[in-house]
Amino acid sequence: MDRQLGRWLLAASLAIGACQGGPGPTVGPTAPPSAASGTSPEPSVGGAPLADRLEAEIEVPGAPDWPQAAFGSLWLLAPDLPIQGQSGTPNLVRIDPATNSIAATITLQDRLCQGFVPGDDAIWVCSSEGLVRIDPATNQVTERIAIPDISRTFYQPAFGDGAVWALGSAASVSDTVIRFEPGTGTATPFTQSAPIGGLAYGFDALWLTLTREGSVLRLDPATGETEVLAAGLADPGPISIGSDSLWVSLRADPEAQARPGDTQLARIDPTSGEVLAEFEIGGSPQGGVLAWAGEGGVLVRSTQPWLVRIDEARGEVVDAIVAEPPVQGPVTFAFESIWPVNVERDVVYRVSP
């Protein structure tokens, strides 16, 4: 499954990357976690049961993953049919939110990458051979861009500055950022000094985390040069872009799970690097909590509680949902609903916010 593959690759990257490295980033203004202003909310206890908030349950065979909204639909990757039943294909699945049903199933070439991202006018899906463009008007593949001397890209790609950004490496060390140029078909690699734990585009820049180094980097999309935004963080991992902040998951090293009392999420100013707040969510998921910032606030998936929602304006946890056992899979907010996937049961839930 994508989630398991991603965790394995991060662990492998951290282990191998401890002995390797490319050019280091420029040191810019940084702020250690101790400089954070405001207070961290208390961890949520209890919450509404998932069953009480369930609006719909949609079956999607193949371990649906990475729900994202674009072009009036919800899109998911379903990569695991070839290994679940020794037959079938990996697919990109399009769901109509008006009917809560599958509107299209788009066959993909392989399951080695499993990342995708909406662009300005298309959906971009990474594969073992490169990047594939899917036209949302026809649900057909219309373009392919080859990977430059790298065997696979394996982290959720991002879109910004008219380009697709993805993570890749030739040796299972996620230390290289690749910029794909739609239209020209070119791809340019930017090797970093250590394995990358998270990647996101926002505020006119690409943001990276170096988990073992405890830092967040800003990559200039025009030059490919990086500088340190924040340092001294506790194993930073995935990044989500909020309305005015970066939301960075902490304790992302799979071998160093959060303990009671540990903060698990940091809110960082993208200009100064100041840690504005840290949050103890609760639970101890391997690889850390996962956050998604958007119109519904900041959704954070953990274990106990399973899901919390942070109000960005107030900087507080305002809602919690519990699930037993915790649902394994990413979440997004779109079409006035929360959309979690359950990779263990091959379903997508539509949940009342």
Describe the structure.
By secondary structure, the protein is mostly beta strands. The protein has one domain (2-18, 36-351): YVTN repeat-like/Quinoprotein amine dehydrogenase (Methylamine Dehydrogenase, Chain H, 7 Propeller), CATH 2.130.10. Helix content is 7%, strand content 44%. The strands form 7 sheets. It has a 5-stranded mixed beta sheet with strand order 1-19-18-17-16, with no helix packed on it. The chain has a 5-stranded mixed beta sheet with strand order 2-27-26-25-24. β10 and β11 form a beta hairpin. The longest helix is centred in the N-terminal third of the chain and has 16 residues, at 2-17. The protein starts with a helix and ends with a strand.
Top-tier CATH class: Mainly Beta
Using the alpha-carbon principal axes, give the shape.
Answer: globular
Reported by name, the CATH topology is Methylamine Dehydrogenase, Chain H
Q: Which blocks of ≥5 consecutive residues have pLDDT under 50?
A: 1-23, 29-45
Quaternary: single chain
Helix content: under 10%
Helices and strands, with pairings:
Blueprint: H1 2-17, E1 26-27, E2 48-49, H2 50-53, E3 54-59, E4 65-70, E5 73-78, H3 81-84, E6 91-96, E7 101-107, E8 116-118, E9 123-126, E10 130-135, E11 140-146, E12 152-160, E13 163-169, E14 176-181, E15 186-191, E16 198-202, E17 205-210, E18 215-219, E19 226-230, E20 239-241, E21 246-249, E22 265-268, E23 275-279, E24 290-294, E25 297-301, E26 307-311, E27 316-322, E28 331-334, E29 337-342, E30 347-351
